[in-house]
## 1
Amino acid sequence: MKEIDARGLACPAPVLQTKAVIDKKNVSALIVIVDNEAAKQNVCRFLESNHYQTAIKRNDDNFIITGTLTKSSLPPDEKALPKKSDEKKIMVMCTTDRMGFGDDELGLKLMVSFIKTLKEMGPDLWRLVFLNNGVRLAIEGSEVLPLLQEYASDGLYIMVCGTCLTHFDLLAKKRVGETTNMLDIVTAMHLADKVINI
């Protein structure tokens, strides 16, 4: 069984190391050791998206993630996959919790209004990504948290940067979306028909 020691590494490095191992050879089982919550969440989600079943053990300050590829976790036949829809895939990236510069109070009001109005994009809104100070919109106490939770329950995929949450010591306060990493964000940008940066 292949073992990856990714302790001391911030995301996306643990995910990238895991991806490199999986890409190089046919790996049916592997262990990834990380030492922070964001890396644990990101590695597990990456493994699961690549059809591995995951199990996590805690050992002091470390998380030991075991990924196992089984027949039941293999992807379905391509013919069984749903056909592409004609909807556009628009990704909106919010890198701040305020819009514009000059007055922070006004900037916050504008951002709240922007988030409320995003629903007008309808099904074309494909991903909503929060980076840097924008992660503050996805934590407890955020004025737009109930709206974001409603968007998520309606099927909008919300991505919240784990490195940013960790930097601001907000990981435990995140209340909506998936804790994500730069590999996921870059992949989503590549797949999107359009990316809007705020």
## 2
Amino acid sequence: MPRRYVAVCGASEATPSQLDAAREVGRLLAREGAVVINGGFGGVMGAASEGAALEGGTVVGILPDSDRAEVNAHLTIAIATGLGQARNAVIVTAADSVIAIGQGWGTLSEIALARRLGRPVFALGTWDVKGLDLVHSPEEAVKRALEG
């Protein structure tokens, strides 16, 4: 079975419960052999990266700037794009599915771009947007994201 690529998107300034959920999502994705993709910085991105790294998983950060300064320490690969917020399109295009945790304007843009591309988005306590698949736990988010 081919390896799955799952983007984990969420707020840079996340609540403790969102960080816990993101860490668990990252851990579960890595345990299943999925590649975790995110924006490469802190908050939900950092927590998902940490969870995946602790399980020995592969974490790819798609960075907005043209350097790798100040990325989270748990990335396996950091790709400097120089694209600014347009890098959100790269994140969701590279993914087979998206898990969105918490709210933030960047998260909302990733949700919209993913849906425009036909990528399934699994919403775990994020924006209330028609067309998202609502999930109620990290386990359900990961299970659904890996199914496609």
## 3
Amino acid sequence: MKLGIVDTMFSRVDMGAIAMDELKTHYPDVTIELRTVPGIKDLAVECKRLLDSGCDSCLALGMVGGAPIDTQCGHEASLGIQQAKLMADKHIVEVFVHENEAWSEHEFFEICENRVRKHAHNAVLLVIDPARLIENAGKGIRQGKEDEGGISQGTGGEEKPIRLAIIVAKFNGEITSEMEREALDTIKKGGQKNKIELEIVHVPGVFDIPLVARKKMMDKKIDGAVALGAVIKGETAHDEAITTDVVRRLGDMSAEFRKPVTLGIIGPGANREAATERAKPYASHATRSAIYLVRLLRDGIEGKMEIEERHKGKK
């Protein structure tokens, strides 16, 4: 077999070298031809040339930047690759890594390495042993991150643990630390049907909660989040601005990811005494609501429509 690899100068990770290492380790008999192009929109033509020159399949390796124009370019490049593979009637395995998939350089490199190494096997097996891929059908295999695993018909939602992220603002810590303790006590005393698994994250203030909540919502292992914080009324309307903005962003996020993000945020208009009184009930309610909503969404929401039949009597 002869395999073509095309990578780019734009990528911040040497994806071609990773692919070469994986292939030489596991498929020493495969002949490899490596090419490099400036950017992702140049991948299609170079892959087509390699396929026309005798390669049996190709790996198209590229990084997509985080700006909106980069996303557009990535889409255009992908369309070009699809056209090239159809024209050649051979596989081009597209291996794109988007810069905004990761939250750090370390995470970005891990995604690149995982995705390239897994797809290197796919590019070979599609040619020499496509039946091997059948063995992995329906198993939730992912390239770039951990495999998710398959879902069987008999899998019961009640047996799966509920994994919650509890995000606690450290500002007004004497109040929010009490809220955190109450959230944990609520779970311990709840007699839950499901096992509850927690990830607790502390952020500087309430305004910082949405950023961390978004990262957690992007994690498919997280079922929901609980936001805990206290915004105390001062001499200005600052508390109103903060609370209104955070509540809106968390509500939009919950709808976007279709996961509950429940509010245990005190304010606006609360003085310190009122916030102290509300700490436990707010935290308890937000925690119980998150667990309830996860179960509700897992089990399916069934609405009932009541139809009123009107019989007209004879006058």
